[in-house]
Amino acid sequence: MKTEFDLWEIHTGARHPFNDRAPRIDNGTGRPGPERYTDPGYAREEWDKVFARSWLLAGPLSDIPEPGDFMKFDIGPESFIIVRGEDDAIHAHYNVCPHRGSQLVTTDFGSLDRFTCPFHSWKFGLDGRNQAVTDAETFRPEVLCHGTDLSSVRCEVAAGLVFVAMDPDIKPLREFLAPILPQLELYEIDQMYVVQHRRSDWGANWKGGVDAFAEIYHLHAVHPQTQCLMDDRTQIDLWPGGLSRQFVPFAQPSPRFPDQESVNPGIQFMLRDAGIDPETFTGTARETRAAVQQAKRRRSEELGLRYERFSDSQLSDSVVYSIFPNVQIGCHPEATFLHRFLPHPTDPNQFTYDTCILYRHVDAPGYSAPAWMGLAEDTDLSGRTRPDVIHTALGEPPCLGEVLDQDSELLPVVQKGAHSRGFKGPLWSEQEGRLRHFHAELDRMMARG
Questions:
Q1: What's the CA gap between 222 and 437, in Å, rounded?
Q2: Which among 37, 146, 227, 237 is placed 20 to 30 Å from 271, CA to CA?
Q3: For residue range 238-248, what is the model confidence (pLDDT) as tens digits?
Q4: CA 132 to CA 8: how far, in whole Å?
């Protein structure tokens, strides 16, 4: 059954295959219970049945460019080391010494020629094989026969991103991502690098974070300041495995916004991003999206950016992908947003929001990441220095920008309401189709033995 939502046509310009709708998936009209957001028992089962059986985004490949470079990836109760080996292969190990369980690394990033346990100095190669047991002669051989190598996990790379999986029998990553992988590869994330990395603890369930970021239905209420420069009519596409995509049109006002003519300050920012001087622009707000698209095509021709591979919508809009279970990727020709929603190890009422901005420098006047991403003026865009992770604790202002800070304030209010006897579970509109799709995949995995 089609609704008014299915009739929205958001694209401009010539038809392009990238914009084509995916075959419809009907996830029904059911109402799941609220315990998925609040129950510690559900969270424990979720860890074993969902996270332990899924591909998990550990980080961008650009964070480990040279042999010996490693990054630490913490999620729930687990910690992993992802390292580039001497043979240039990417390895992933549980961040734990097999001797007594000490973690091997405690920093987010680093470079080593081998791993040394800080407790008793056992040594391991980058591939996880044990190289030295301190005072090995004091161990009975039958003890060491239990195994002295690190415990490794599946690790695969796609579209410049490194994923790990605790399930040794999981399907290959590229097979899982197959419906969206060619689209992600268009953005050449493998040539981008991190220019900002922030991590903050929020007072809500991780799925509340996924839900909030997978729809724009809430913009008019929570972020009314966006209505002058973002259209909340949208296109949603769903694929098997909990994968989804959403177009968020930029550089034009929402139909809810009263002034459809004036080129307001928000849209002026987007004109400048595209190399258009707002002072000389003679069009209306309804015409700025097309003007941005055309200006970026001209810039591409001048600089050899090869934007002919993109549709017009891709040049102006945010194209946001969901990768089950806990990742969203906001794609733009100039920069990419990586969002991860990391469950708390024990408390279903908390999660960690981890967000990176990836960018590839182009030496041309006016070329940069979109201004709305909120990069600080002193951000190093060259890629020469990997920025530190800025981590804010629960209760501290996350300083993520006005819009994301508003989300961080609202989600604890939603989480508190989820505990009420009066809340029977969510009621999703077609605008929230990505949420229903995500929860349908969640339910499928939770029902597995």
A1: 23
A2: 237
A3: 999 999 999 99
A4: 64
